[in-house]
Structure formats: structure tokens, C-alpha cells
């Protein structure tokens, strides 16, 4: 009996084909990009601006709490999101007139705390309102002093306005603050 040889498959080019397929799928596959908040962190405070906790008076802290039901509790009172910007501006722009509000914008700190159940939309809305309050106050001062909006200022002029209204938003770790 004669032995027949079994046909063999030439596997020499299989590695090349697999490599080409791998490159094809890597090039044509789209990756999902994580989305999030576009936030620019405030500038680092200068040495003379750094305060320790013992120097901060309670009247200079504007406490904003957001619970799991997306309700705002500002300075221990319920507030609608539509009132947050004006309330924050009044707190920052007090200049010592009202004893229940901040001494001045340089000493004022906005303390924000969310509940773990706070919706993303509410979190973003609160952040936007707080940032808008600072932006409006800076725009007002820039218009008064230089005749242009804050974002149009350059160098020392921008630094001067930022020093008048430094954006100090302290965000505490989210926790379960209840359903008030």
C-alpha cells in the first residue's frame, strides 16, 4: 500500500493576514470619548492670600447644599435654582454692609456640598449659577474700570479684577445629606 501524503495548508501568510485584519479593525473602530464638565480651575492663590481655617469667619462662608431630591438649601433656607445667582452675588458683593453676609469678596467662600443622589443636571446647573455670579460681578467691575468685559481684559488688568473677586468655591465630598 502506498501512503498518500496529506495535503498541507500553507500557513506562512496567515500571520500577515491576521496582522492586516488587526490593523484594519484598530483604524476603523471609533472609541467613545468620556464626556464631563469643562471646567477651568481657578488660579492658585498668591502667598498672602492663603488663609488657614482659624482665620475664616462663619459669616464669610456661603453654604450651598443640594439634596437627593435636587432641592437647594442655601444658608439653611430652601432656595430655587433661579435665585442662586442673585443670592450668591449679594453675598459676595456685600462689602460688610449686611452683618449676615460676607465682609468682602476677597474673604468670601462658597461652600458647595451635594448628596450622592443629586442628579447630574442639578449639579451642573448649580455650578453654572455659581460661576455666572462671579462672572457677572467681574464683568461689572471690568466695565466700570476699563470699559470692557472681564474676558476681554489682558494681563495686569485681568489680574486686578480677579483679585477683587477671587473665585473661591469649596466643593465638599458628596454624602447623604438627607431629603430636606
Q: What characterizes the major β-sheet?
A: 5 strands, mixed
Residue runs with pLDDT of under 50 for 5 or more positions: none
Could you say which structural class the secondary elements and strand pairing correspond to?
alpha/beta
Radius of gyration: 28 Å
User: What's the SSE pattern?
Assistant: HEEEHEHHE
- The largest beta-sheet arranges its strands as 3-2-1-4-5
Distance between the termini: 93 Å
Provide a count of the helices.
Answer: 4
Average pLDDT: 84
Brief characterization of the structure:
The protein has 180 residues and is of the alpha/beta class. The chain has helices at 14-28, 81-92, 120-146, 155-164, and strands at residues 61-66, 72-74, 77-79, 109-114, 169-171.
Provide an overview of this structure.
- The chain is of the alpha/beta class and 180 residues long.
- It has a domain at 50-171: Nucleotidyltransferase, domain 5.
- 36% of the residues lie in helices and 12% in strands.
- It contains four helices and five strands.
- The chain has helices spanning 14-28, 81-92, 120-146, 155-164; strands spanning 61-66, 72-74, 77-79, 109-114, 169-171.
- The protein has a five-stranded mixed sheet with strand order 3-2-1-4-5, covered by helices on one side.
- Strand 1 and strand 2 (72-74) form a beta hairpin.
- It is elongated.
Amino acid at each position: 500500500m502506498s501512503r498518500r501524503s496529506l495535503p498541507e495548508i500553507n500557513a506562512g501568510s496567515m500571520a500577515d493576514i491576521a496582522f492586516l485584519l488587526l490593523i484594519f479593525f484598530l483604524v476603523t473602530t471609533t472609541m467613545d470619548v468620556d464626556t464631563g464638565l469643562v471646567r477651568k480651575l481657578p488660579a492658585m492663590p498668591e502667598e498672602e492670600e492663603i488663609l488657614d481655617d482659624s482665620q475664616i469667619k462663619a459669616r464669610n462662608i456661603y453654604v450651598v447644599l443640594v439634596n437627593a431630591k435636587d432641592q437647594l438649601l442655601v444658608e439653611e433656607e430652601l432656595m430655587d435654582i433661579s435665585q442662586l445667582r442673585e443670592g450668591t452675588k449679594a453675598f459676595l458683593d456685600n462689602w460688610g454692609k449686611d452683618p449676615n453676609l460676607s465682609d468682602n469678596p476677597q474673604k468670601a467662600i462658597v461652600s458647595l456640598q451635594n448628596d450622592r443622589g443629586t442628579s447630574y443636571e442639578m449639579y451642573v446647573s448649580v455650578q453654572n449659577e455659581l460661576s455666572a455670579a462671579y462672572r457677572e460681578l467681574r464683568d461689572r467691575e471690568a466695565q466700570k474700570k476699563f470699559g470692557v468685559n472681564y474676558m476681554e481684559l489682558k494681563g495686569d488688568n485681568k489680574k486686578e479684577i480677579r483679585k477683587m473677586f477671587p473665585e473661591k468655591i469649596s466643593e465638599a465630598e458628596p454624602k447623604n445629606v438627607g431629603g430636606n
